[in-house]
Structure formats: C-alpha cells, structure tokens
Amino acid sequence: MDKFRVIEVKQSIFENNDKQAEELRKELKEQGVYLLNLMSSPGSGKTTTLSRTIEALRDEMKIGVMEADIDSDVDARTIEQLGAKAIQLHTGGMCHLDADMTRQGIENFGVDGLDLVILENVGNLVCPAEFDTGASKNAMVLSVPEGHDKPLKYPLMFSVCDVVLVNKMDVLPYFDFDMEKCKEYVHMRNPKATVIPICAKTGEGMEQWFDWLRREVAQWNA
Amino acid sequence: MDKFRVIEVKQSIFENNDKQAEELRKELKEQGVYLLNLMSSPGSGKTTTLSRTIEALRDEMKIGVMEADIDSDVDARTIEQLGAKAIQLHTGGMCHLDADMTRQGIENFGVDGLDLVILENVGNLVCPAEFDTGASKNAMVLSVPEGHDKPLKYPLMFSVCDVVLVNKMDVLPYFDFDMEKCKEYVHMRNPKATVIPICAKTGEGMEQWFDWLRREVAQWNA
Predict the structure, then answer these.
(1) Residue B5 lies in a domain
(2) How open is the CA angle A193-A199-A203, to the nearest 5 degrees?
C-alpha cells in the first residue's frame, strides 16, 4: 500500500564530516536542489508544520521529504498522504544524521527535478546540531510548551539555525512563555537568526514562513 | 551567592559502561543511597516536577539533586532555592551521561547521609536511554503537548523507564492527546512500566508519584 521506501542509513565512516557536507551542498547547488535541515525536540510539531508547508507550496515548486526516525514510519505515511514524494530514513538508534547519512538518503531518494527537499532530522536538540548535513540552511521548530529558556540550555542548536519557528502559538495563554525573552535568547546565540511565531494548526504566521522559504529556494537557483 | 558547585564531567574512557554502572549501583546500595535517573525531552517540566517533589518529601528524607546540562546552570539555581543540596554537572556538549560521568558527579557531590539523589539527565529522548548511569531506577517525564505517539518514535527510552510521568495534564483539553493510547504504546515498550498522569503545576496526580518514590526509597534501604 505504501509507496514510500524505508532506507536504513549507516553511520558514516568518514572522519571529516564538514568536508563531506561541503561536497554534498555543492552538488545539490549544481543540481538546483535546495535542502532544508529541519530540527526540533520530540513533539514540537515538525511534521504538522511540514504538512501545512507542502500544502501551501506544492503548486509552486516540486517538494520532496526525507523523514529521519529511529525506527518508526509514522511521519513518512503522513507526508505521503499529502501527495509529496517521501522517503523514510531509519538511523538504527543513531541520534542524528551526518553528511554521509544524508547523502545515502539523497541517493536512494533520487532528487532529480526537485526544487526543495526537506530533511526532517531526529527529534533531539543536542546531537543533530553537531553535524553539518550538507543542507543549504538549518531551520528549527521550538514549541511554546517547551519554554522560552531553551536557547540558554541548548546553545549549539540555536547558534546553527538560520530560522526558528516558534510553534503552537494558539496555546500561548496557557503557558509561561515570554516571546520577547525567547527572541533575546535566540539572538544571544545567533544574532542573524530569523524568529517567526507560528501556529501550524491554525495557520497563524505561516505566510511569513512560506515567504522565507520561497525567497531561499529562489536565491539558491538564481 | 550561589552555594552549588559546577562540575565539568568528562566523557568516560571505559569501554564497558554496563560494568561501571553495576559497580556504582552496588556501592550506592551499600551506602543506602537511592539514585533516580530522571529523563525527558527539553521543556517537558522535569525541573518543576523535581521542585514539587523536593517540597513534598524534604521533611521525610534527605534529598540531593545533580543537574546535568550542556552548559547552563538555570536548573541548579532553581533547586537550591528550595533548600536542597544541588550540584550542576556540565557535560561539555555531550548529549547524555554514562556511568563514569555519573560517578564523577557523585564523588564531587558527596552523597554521604543522603537517602535520595535525583539525577536530572540532559533533555533528550535518544542518547540518555542508551547509557546505564548506575541509577537504582529510571524515570521519565513525557508532557501532554509532545503527543501520545512518542513511545512509537523513541522506543528505547520507554523500554528502559520504570515509571513514566505524563505531565501538563492541565492543558489536556487543548491538545490531541489520547491517554489510553499513550498507556498502550508505553506498555508495548515496557509492560511493567508505571504510567502516572500528573500536573506539576497544579499538583494533580503528584501524591501517586510521591508514594511511588517513598516505596522505592524504603525498599532500597530495607
């Protein structure tokens, strides 16, 4: 029934991950494929955000999704039901993807003709931040229930992300979440980061996020 | 001003973590110190749960807290303000604690005379589950906003935990969280796990959790 394949990606044998990442990024640039590495904690709403993004942009650009997960295929099923090309990457217990694992995924997936590939990384604020995957840019979803202090506790994640989507804005009244402090802490880690408050469920703020992605994909192919 | 110390724990040189863990557990048993390894995602409410636990039990038993964090000391400050003995363990970017890192913490902390030591592990559902810390038991906090599907996506974490606290029950009406499914999925991973719905903020379910801890500490010293 399911069209998407499940690929077991193996831990890289390469010592120099940064070099592998640069090579992959260069090749994708030549192919005109923009790769977005999307990271977050478990349960922040990455898959819902992704679903709404596909629905909004699928008529403008060709989108593929690589879902990394330790061993389930819940997310690839969800994405495929939206009509997007999807593949599930199983990391076999590994807590992150590196550049070579990403390359294994890309090569199995086949990205020819795609404009935008979104890599949904393993839900984890620590390890994925340590490995350049070869993505064009890094994005993360931080949800309101997690709290505004997360950039203080997971500094590397926030310093490597170009855009931080603050999701679940619909439940803001029920949590002690200070958006100004959140922005201040994110900018302590990365002064250039774009912070966009969103609610994937209600659509709040999503246009700003779609515009960010549209600009990025257009510039990559310029 | 701050009385707690900050210890930089170094990655273990030991290959056999399980053996190191067994030795530490045995030594702590002889000293009559119950060590609870508390794990969760970032922002699930571990520190608030811990704070309420200390307030409830501090007159019955002597409690110490070891806060593991990548590099902040937000949590140790919070705990110390409750009058509990606290120490901050900095992992220097490491995403988990192993048995030797826990031992470094224990030895610097000084657990003599303590009945219960709670190790607040790094906020991460992946890596901490892979390393036995030498704790008497493992507990985790899963918060309602994270979703009931987490045991499907992070199987190892749920299979190593003896008790799962489902926190933030006060916001249940605002999320699509199915408690029955959550229990079913947890028990798929670990049929013996105790699942306790709580709200650290309002106190809901906390007595059941305190009773679980009281029984555990009493049995450890029996």
Answers:
(1) no
(2) 115
